[in-house]
Design brief:
about 5% strand; single chain; 14 helices
Length: about 400
């Protein structure tokens, strides 16, 4: 099985590595590129349909794994149709993102399609059915509450990956880290199918990062970030629901720690911005009239704050990789130990690290402002994704 896993990852990696240059050339030829503009930080046209390359490599690796393990013929495995639903739903999300990359789609339509895709995979059996309770060996069975909670998780993580796709290689590298940990947790729990899907995705992301890391030759685009978020969200809940202890809840949350943290801060900041106007007038009616502003883009993401603090493009990405690695590794330790005591210790440690991280950003930002002076500014960096309105929550 280990040999098949390595071969699957290698095949996915090589496939994506080989097809990406062709997709770059085709994107330039048909005009599927992100052009520089007054609100954008890259200075040359960059293709933004990298999700196609990731999907092709992922599909090739997954087909190989299915036949190499005998999954398609062995009746002891879960139904092939069960996983086919996930493949079709992921492809629909990919196509939705691809359409948005070429011709922007309103956030209402994107939400609608994402909710529909999440509902379909819930109906097929990919569900959050049990919530763990600390210090108890049994969990709370959700019943029909499983549907809204599963949709909330899948749609939330889908858009979380879209939101963090603001620097070269950030979303793809974060997905690589989280998917690797999902694969290890699935192997620990004996989930062969989840492991195969994760390993195929890991290989594809490795091949894609060759062209997506700074300076990027191609962006993931909505097609890639939404496909990755949707797929990782589904396989994470499927790989963890075998465990009904508290780690069944904390595990997936920690795996997605950095995307969830950034998305939570974005939503909180944007909700706060629509409470009142400049004169201090507000109320329910004012908030209802201006609710659409929550979905407008801004430059308040963690990666923007690191750039404003004077960090280089690559330095900011690598630091955020480290954040994702710490939270994902914590999830792995938590699931393997399956101990409430370990969960409490990890939670306390992560709180301290988060406080230290924000203190570091604040310190660097103040020092950078003093160096630049009152008229200072940050120059655009070549290769960075655009700051155009993108994604359901206004990605950049």
């Amino acid at each position: 099985m280990w040999l098949i896993g390595v071969a699957t990852a290698a095949l996915s990696c090589v496939t994506t590595w080989l097809v990406t240059p062709s997709i770059v050339r085709i994107a330039h030829r048909v005009g599927a590129v992100d052009h520089p503009g007054p609100r954008k930080v890259h200075v040359t046209p960059i293709p933004r349909v990298g999700g196609i390359a990731v999907f092709i490599g992922f599909g090739v690796g997954l087909i190989f794994a299915a036949f190499a393990t005998g999954y398609v013929t062995n009746a002891m495995h879960e139904r092939v149709g069960y996983w086919s639903v996930l493949a079709v739903a992921s492809a629909v999300v990919l196509i939705l993102g691809l359409v948005d990359d070429i011709r922007p789609v309103s956030f209402q339509w994107k939400f609608a399609f994402q909710i529909l895709a999440a509902s379909v995979v819930w109906w097929s059996g990919f569900r959050i059915e049990v919530l763990g309770v600390p210090f108890l060996s049994t969990g709370v069975h959700l019943g029909w509450w499983s549907l809204p909670l599963t949709i909330l998780w899948i749609v939330g993580i889908t858009n979380a990956f879209n939101l963090i796709d603001g620097l070269d290689g950030l979303a793809a590298g974060t997905a690589l880290i989280t998917t690797t940990v999902v694969a290890l947790i699935a192997l620990h729990g004996g989930r062969v199918a989840v492991s195969a899907i994760s390993v195929a995705l890991v290989g594809s992301l490795l091949g894609f990062l060759r062209y997506n890391f700074n300076p990027a030759q191609i962006f993931l685009g909505d097609s890639g970030s939404m496909f990755l978020g949707f797929s990782v969200a589904v396989i994470a809940i499927h790989g963890s629901q075998k465990n009904v202890a508290a780690v069944a809840v904390l595990g997936p949350l920690l795996i997605m720690g950095y995307p969830i943290l950034d998305t939570g801060l974005v939503i909180a900041r944007r909700l706060n911005s629509v409470r009142t106007d400049s004169a201090g007038r507000g109320g329910i009616r004012y908030m209802a009239r201006n609710a659409h502003r929550v979905f407008l883009p801004d430059r308040g993401h963690l990666h923007h704050r690191l750039l404003d603090a004077g960090m280089s493009h690559r330095g900011a990405v690598l630091l955020l990789y480290g954040c994702g690695l710490v939270t994902a590794a914590s999830a792995l330790v938590l699931v393997v130990s399956n101990s409430p005591t370990v969960a409490i210790l990890l939670a306390a440690t992560l709180i301290v690290l988060i406080v230290a991280f924000f203190a570091f950003i604040l310190f660097r930002t103040r020092r950078a402002r003093r160096r630049r002076g009152p008229a200072g500014g940050r120059a655009p960096q070549s290769g960075s994704p655009s700051a155009t309105p993108d994604g359901v929550l206004g990605r950049h």
